[in-house]
Target: Na(+)/H(+) antiporter NhaA
Amino acid sequence: MGERRNDGLMALFFFVVGLEIKRELVVGELQDRRAAMLPALAALGGVVLPAVLFLLVVGGGPEARGWGVPLATDIAFAVGVLALLGSRIPAGVKLFLLSVAIVDDIIAVGIIAVAYTDSLEHGWLLAASAGLIVVAAMRRFGVASILLYVPVALFVWYATLHSGVHATIAGVVLGLMTPARPVSGRDVLGDLQHGLHPISAFLVVPLFALANAGVDLRGGALGDAAGSSVAWAIVVGLLVGKVVGIGGATWLALRLGIGTLPSDVPPRLVWGVAALAGIGFTVSLFIADLAYTDAVQVTQAKVGVFAASTTAAVIGSGLLVTLTRRSRG
Model:
């Protein structure tokens, strides 16, 4: 029951992520290939280097299965921390962070689908595909009522859950299939984002955190985590890997003339954005539960995620405030 609850919560979470991705791809920052190139390369650097560093720290064995834990950025928490800094931070910083995090999560979703999927049940997979075809047909005939899509979407999620492909993929695919432009005069995507984003941010994420983030630190668990290669690999991946990967890839791309930053974002602020991207939290906790079955390793991974995400929030905020002052000074 707990696993089904997690799958349901995260399918809704990733559906909202899918909506954000679709809007950015069709009418947002990522529709312009040149504008999209820089955050795409930055995100790629922020995925590859954390994975490499994680594997270098753990050195192989069953611990290596958690290589996906430090890859994803928690969009809600990273943007939330940025919002706390207020108007003192240029608006373009949020745009760049959001673009990087969205590409980052596209890669993370692909990794979940490939690396953390069990054996496939082809009958259920065909059923899920049939449900998606029904959704596409409804779109083709101009069905704009969101309520009519709900039972089909639930069927797609249920079939995907039993297919062996992780059910969160159903959420992303359904989000990407949502029309970004008005249907019969109705902004379906906008209505869904407006209605579901608060539920995802203020209900789904906290419920998931309460259900999964609890770490029993009794019995020397904290000391075990401090001496654990898994915990340290996650910390190094989310802190060093994200900062150097995103910051380095952005610096190199700008030097080569590939892509541009928003006009109000000096290049030095990228390092603050890169640090905030080390806030993995929700997605990292989710992948940790997929990667490990041993309770001790799960606890070690969660301690690493908490430590790294908290540190990333503090360092990223400090860098952005300090570097913004210097830029204006």
Observations:
- The chain has one domain: 2-117+166-328.
- The chain has a mean pLDDT of 85.
- The first helix runs from residue 2 to 26.
- The domain at 2-117+166-328 is CATH 1.20.1530.10 (Na+/H+ antiporter like fold).
